[in-house]
Prior knowledge:
Blueprint: H1 8-27, H2 39-56, H3 58-64, H4 68-84, H5 90-109
Amino acid sequence: METLALAPAEESARDTSWETRERTSQDASPAPAKGPLNGLATLALAYGTLSVIGALIPPVRTVTGTIPVPALVLGVTGWANAHRMDGAGRKQALAGLATGLTGLVLTLCTL
């Protein structure tokens, strides 16, 4: 079997086109990586929002009366988790604490 050798001009042209294709594929920006998610902070915000809504509607208050307590607990643990995760979900945990505390105060005031 014979191996065909390329002429030097063809070989350099082939290498250049390959390098050009490589560079253009490297220039394309990849999709940004998502950071870590803090599920406890998200739950704290959801529970806090439900506690505020539940405190303002009397028929719903009988069902959602104790939701502010888990919202506060999840907010504190989400806040602690955020410190370990380089701040991921810190604002959500703070919002969960605020809405949980607001829901607790509203529930106690409207009893």
